[in-house]
């Protein structure tokens, strides 16, 4: 089993965004069956069968917002008297979920709809409550989805205003008229994901001239969209560059993209009452607008995600007194 050292120093923003930090060394792990306990939106903390006595290691995926969320989780846990460290930028869901299952990390910020589709690519739920209930069944028995946050960040498919005007694009359904003529850009995982090329083909009947493997709402895909190297880009709805550049988010009339509220996924062995209460308090305070502001502080104003998270937790009364 690969060991992730929870005592490693917290890296600077440049180090965080520089690579996968050896994520390729994390072995894949088959999902085990089972049903977890879920409390819906309750913030009563739950009784919990686990113990946080040894502390928790929070892992994150390889994009800015998820790193911010990881540091928010850690700060909120510390505020509740739970030891916590962060292992940021580990890679895509295909890497971090196995790391969570095998115990290299204990806690992960996730997104409801895409997480469900990772375990069940036939899932049809789109509403937040239905998704949370479905996660109860879909998650491996060792994992639990805690109550989801008010904040939501959805995948979106965006084009420049020039492209939208040239081809009359306002909806994902419009792409079918240009089948096989446009270039799509996004993270490598989009080739096999339902909220990606698979779903665009199956739900909207759309294929593309070319797929360019870039990053997840990061500088590569956004730079390619600006330059015209890609026509359609997979971005995140809280990305401040969408509004700043006047990009057009294509509507999703057939609801390919499910609700994506932020949801903590934790190993049940660590989920005691203190952990549950701390993350429920955080989730109740974190709105979509607040999350977008935090993204801007890191992506635009170039602040370190750990410092941004620590300041937000303190300002919102969640830090240790």
From TrEMBL:
Residues of the ABC-type glycine betaine transport system substrate-binding domain: 56-314
Signal peptide interval: 1-30
Pfam families assigned: OpuAC
Transmembrane helix as UniProt keyword: no
Keywords for the protein's UniProt record, in alphabetical order: Signal
Protein's name in the database: ABC transporter substrate-binding protein
Organism: Streptomyces lonegramiae
């Amino acid at each position: 089993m690969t060991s992730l050292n929870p005592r490693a120093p917290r890296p600077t923003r440049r180090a965080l965004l520089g690579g996968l930090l050896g994520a390729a060394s994390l072995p894949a792990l088959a999902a085990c069956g089972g049903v977890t306990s879920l409390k819906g939106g309750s913030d009563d903390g739950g009784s919990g069968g686990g113990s946080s006595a040894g502390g928790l290691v929070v892992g994150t995926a390889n994009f800015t917002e998820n790193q911010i969320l990881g540091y928010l989780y850690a700060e909120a846990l510390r505020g509740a008297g739970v030891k916590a460290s962060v292992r940021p930028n580990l890679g895509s869901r295909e890497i971090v979920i196995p790391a969570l299952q095998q115990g290299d990390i204990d806690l992960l910020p996730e997104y409801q709809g895409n997480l469900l589709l990772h375990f069940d690519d036939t899932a049809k739920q789109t509403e937040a409550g239905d998704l949370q209930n479905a996660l109860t069944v879909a998650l491996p028995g060792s994992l639990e989805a805690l109550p989801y946050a008010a904040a939501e960040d959805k995948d979106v498919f965006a084009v420049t205003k020039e492209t939208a005007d040239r081809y009359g694009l306002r909806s994902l359904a419009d792409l079918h008229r240009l089948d096989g003529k446009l270039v799509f850009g996004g993270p490598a995982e989009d080739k096999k994901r339902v909220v990606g090329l698979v779903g665009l083909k199956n739900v909207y009947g759309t294929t593309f001239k070319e797929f360019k493997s870039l990053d997840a709402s990061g500088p590569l895909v956004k730079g390619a969209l600006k330059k015209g190297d890609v026509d359609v880009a997979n971005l995140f709805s809280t990305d401040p560059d969408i509004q700043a550049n006047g990009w057009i988010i294509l509507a999703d009339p057939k609801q390919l993209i499910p609700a994506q509220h932020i949801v903590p996924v934790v190993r049940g062995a660590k989920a005691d009452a203190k952990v549950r209460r701390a993350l429920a308090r955080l989730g109740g305070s974190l709105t979509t607008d607040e999350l977008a502001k935090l993204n801007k502080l890191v992506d635009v104003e170039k602040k370190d995600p750990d410092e941004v998270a620590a300041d937000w937790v303190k300002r919102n009364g969640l830090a240790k007194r």
